[in-house]
Specification:
31% strand; single chain; 6-stranded mixed sheet; binds fe (ii) ion; 424 residues; 2 domains; Immunoglobulin-like; Purple Acid Phosphatase, chain A, domain 2; 5-stranded antiparallel sheet
């Protein structure tokens, strides 16, 4: 028994070392963010403490260079070197600087090897794969939200266990490109303190061969400090700063919307303008936002009033929601009724580690069969092809073990279904 415990303990330590060994302690909270055009653009960002290093650089190459800085094909001096926007008392002592490079004109469907440097501190080489720009190429994305810790689970958050599972999934299936996060990363999102652990935990998604999982960010209600959110995910440019924007990959248009600001007014006008432009025959349109229009737990957000009529009008393909901390799939809904022909399925509602709630609205008409609602950790795997898409509803089966803590490597496929293009 003692030997067994020893083996488990050592394997746990080696796993954590493998994820942490890529960054020296001076290079903190590394993230790789995708925004509008991940086939050709990628943002690399990290934090440093105590001093602004004069030299902050990113290095990228299509072939591995093993950290030989002179050998990298693309070199960028980080254009972002600023204080993180947090003056909250709770963040006293955490005066970080953030640094970021934005690479443009990258080649689609290409493995890029990279390192980042602040002063003499250099990361180990990691890599990621850019999104395709070729309709014939299929790809997969993970959609999920609410990776935050919460009471009473605050001492036992399941996020690290689920992140290790994501690493295993990407190792097995390299066509999984990124995590589209539906918001609520941490409990105290208005300050930076909690985010430190989120970024550390995200390193657990690194595969054994050093592949880093990009994040497509969406803003949740816990990300109360918009300046901080924009600093963390480098959302400063005009098209990103209000946290509603489109991520385009081949013929897929993910409409990342913001339920933490007015959903009517300017956002609604923007939504209609862009749905009119992109919700065309042969395109996939997936809105993704935090607070549900068709909730399993809470009351509907303003998304029901402002977004849903436009989803109906422009016949979006599938909607991702978060926030409720319950797994749900609605019946296909059109004009507030079940409609098997023109109806839209809403999936949700946040299960990347947060404690799950009982779905209070389970008996509502929109969650009856073929819909469902239950308390279960979850995320969605979207397999995208030019003319068909398959969605898997996956529930990590997490078990708390004294030494290894959360083990979520077993999964259950709760549901899977196919989508065909709508007659728009
Ligand atoms: Fe939320």
């Amino acid at each position: 028994m003692r030997v067994l415990i020893g083996v488990i303990f050592l394997s746990l330590i080696s796993f954590n070392l493998h994820s942490k060994e890529y960054f020296p302690k001076e290079i903190k909270h590394f993230r790789l963010v995708w925004h509008e055009d991940p086939a050709t653009e990628a943002t690399l960002a990290w934090n440093t403490k105590r001093e602004i290093y004069k030299e902050n650089y990113c290095y990228m190459s299509k072939t591995p260079k093993k950290g030989n800085l002179k050998a990298y094909e693309l070199v960028q001096r980080a254009p972002y070197n600023r204080y993180l926007s947090t003056t909250n008392k709770a963040d006293i002592g955490l005066r970080y600087f953030y640094h970021a490079c934005v690479f443009k004109n990258l080649s689609p469907s290409t493995k890029y090897y990279f390192v980042v440097r602040s002063g003499s501190h250099v990361s180990k080489e990691l890599h990621f794969i850019t999104a395709p720009k070729d309709p014939k190429r299929s790809f997969k994305l993970i959609f999920g939200g609410d990776s935050r810790d919460n009471l009473p689970n605050i001492r036992r958050p399941r996020r690290p266990g689920i992140n290790k599972l994501l690493a295993k999934m990407v190792e097995k299936d390299p066509s999984i490109l990124a995590l589209v996060h539906g918001g609520d990363y941490v409990f105290f999102g208005m300050i930076f303190r909690d985010f430190r652990q989120w970024f550390r935990d995200h390193l657990l998604t690194i595969t054994k061969d050093g592949r880093f999982l990009p994040v497509v960010p969406t803003r949740g209600n816990h990300e109360k400090n918009v300046e901080l959110f924009n600093d963390l995910f480098i959302m400063h440019r005009k098209s990103l700063k209000n946290s509603y924007y489109i991520t385009k990959i081949n013929n897929l248009y993910i409409f990342n919307l913001n339920t933490s600001i007015a959903m009517g007014g300017l956002q609604k006008i923007w939504l209609e303008t862009h749905l009119r432009k992109y919700a065309k025959k042969g395109n996939w349109v997936f809105p993704n936002y935090h607070e549900p229009a068709w909730p399993a737990v809470k009351k509907p957000s303003d998304a029901l009033k402002h977004f849903v009529p436009l989803f109906d009008k422009y016949q979006v393909d599938l909607v991702f929601e978060s926030d409720g901390h319950s797994l749900k799939k609605t019946v296909p809904i059109y004009k507030n009724k079940k409609d098997l022909k023109k109806g839209i399925i809403y999936l949700g509602e946040g299960g990347l580690g947060v404690g799950q709630r009982k779905p209070k609205n389970k008996n509502s008409w929109f969650l009856k069969k073929p819909g469902f609602a239950m308390a279960a950790d979850h995320f969605f795997l979207a397999s995208m092809k030019k003319d068909s898409a398959e969605i898997k509803v996956i529930s990590p089966q997490c078990k708390y073990e004294l030494i290894t803590r959360w083990n979520c490597l077993k999964t259950k496929v709760i549901d899977k279904f196919k989508l065909k293009h709508r007659a728009r």
